From TrEMBL:
GO terms for molecular function: zinc ion binding. Pfam families: IQ (PF00612). The keyword Metal-binding applies. InterPro entries: IQ_motif_EF-hand-BS, RNF32, Znf_RING, Znf_RING/FYVE/PHD. This is RING finger protein 32. It comes from Cricetulus griseus (Chinese hamster).
């Protein structure tokens, strides 16, 4: 549809505004195109309907453009460009943004930092003290006798490391002598009432923690221990 011949604009929701203004300006009722006098008018709403459709189309186009531009801006913030200069600028901006976040989140309260360090040191001291109380004190012969009785009640007949018989019991010792001409290996008793071959335990300690480690963990119960070599 062609625009209004008077104002050269699209037909909007007020169809008679331009014609009434033209008649008022000329002081006579004459057609602006053919100059015919005494014409009759009839209001039709096709122009207003088309105007509504065109406005709705423009609104939809603007909204789609806004969504696409917003999506593209977010995409530019995530995906680096392929051009070398733009790519370098992209990573410089990212690095600046990350540095700014770190500086904003950095807490400069020195007293709180020192109090947190003191708390961590106190917790570490308490843990080391508990470990020292459990593994650092010397055990008496009575304690070893009680532990040996407890190990005897468990009926441990073989080393849990090499799965061969221990040389502590008479029957196992006799079986070891019958099957091999070598001397039986020494048996060691741990403070957690577990029995192992002395050589097996030394090899395990050297393999797991090293010779200079202050404490070792039992292969079965994972507790720190003291050890005593038993006489066969």
């Amino acid at each position: 549809m062609q625009p209004c011949p008077i104002c050269k604009e699209e037909f909007e929701l007020q169809p008679q505004a331009c014609l009434q203004a033209f008649e008022k300006f000329t002081n006579k009722k004459t057609c602006p195109l053919c100059r015919k006098n005494q014409y009759q008018t009839r209001v039709i709403h096709d122009g207003s309907r088309l105007f509504r459709i065109k406005c709705a189309t423009r609104i939809q186009a603007y909204w789609r453009g806004f969504i696409v531009r917003k999506w593209y801006k977010n995409l530019r913030k995530i995906v680096p460009p392929t051009d070398a200069k733009l790519r370098r600028k992209f990573f410089e901006e990212k690095f600046t943004e990350i540095s700014h976040r770190i500086l904003c989140s950095y807490n400069t309260n020195i007293d709180e930092l020192f109090s947190e360090i003191d708390l961590c040191l106190a917790v570490n001291r308490s843990i080391l003290q508990q470990l020292d109380d459990r593994c650092g004190h010397e055990m008496t012969e009575e304690d070893w006798e009680k532990i040996q009785v407890q190990a005897a009640h468990r009926e441990i007949y073989e080393c849990s490391i090499c799965l061969t018989p221990l040389s502590l019991h008479a029957d196992c010792q006799q079986a070891a002598v019958e099957t091999s001409s070598q001397r039986p290996r020494k048996t060691v008793l741990l403070s957690c009432a577990h029995l192992f071959h002395h050589a097996c335990l030394l090899a395990l300690e050297e393999f797991s923690l090293g010779d200079n480690a202050p404490f070792h963990a039992c292969p079965l119960c994972r507790s720190c221990y003291q050890k005593k070599i038993l006489e066969c």
